[in-house]
Amino acid sequence: MPYKIPESVLVVIHTTDLQVLLLERADRPGFWQSVTGSLDTPDEPLALTAAREVAEETGIVASEHRLQDWGHHIEYEIYPEWRHRYAPGVTRNVEHWFGLCVDRPLPVTLAPREHLQSVWLPWEQAAARCFSSSNAE
Asked: What CATH number did the domain enclosing 89 receive?
């Protein structure tokens, strides 16, 4: 498997009344997060990465809803347990934030190798459950 590109998206899927979808990681039970994923190629448009990851991880088709580039990105240190996925010496990742607004909580089709379960929660509860402080933000 080729190394992951250290540039990714975070997609917060939420309803108009701010219920947020969280996914529990299969490789880290108890770790809840929004949709995340790395670019497939260095020149892949960020919005395409966001829509692809939403479809892969939830089955939701982003083009049927309101995908918004929040125009914000962060750089963070990659968790040591996931560094083996990146080229030797790569320790930092740039993450671009998106929101996907849906009208109501939607059923989710999980990628079983990636996630164990999903839940829709009011935004305050979702933020409290996220294992990543940047995702909670």
From this structure: 3.90.79.10
- What domain range includes position 115? 7-136
pTM of the predicted model as reported, rounded to 2 decimal places = 0.95
Using DSSP, state whether 95 is helix, strand or coil.
Answer: strand
Tokens of 22: 């969280």
Q: Among 13, 68, 15, which residue's Cα sits nearest to residue 23? A: 13
Distance CA 113, CA 124 (A): 28
Mind listing the pLDDT tens digit of every residue in the chain (137 residues)? 689 999 999 999 999 999 999 999 998 999 999 999 999 999 999 999 999 999 999 999 999 999 999 999 999 999 898 899 999 999 999 999 999 999 999 999 998 899 999 999 999 999 999 998 889 99
> Residue 22: beta bridge partners?
119
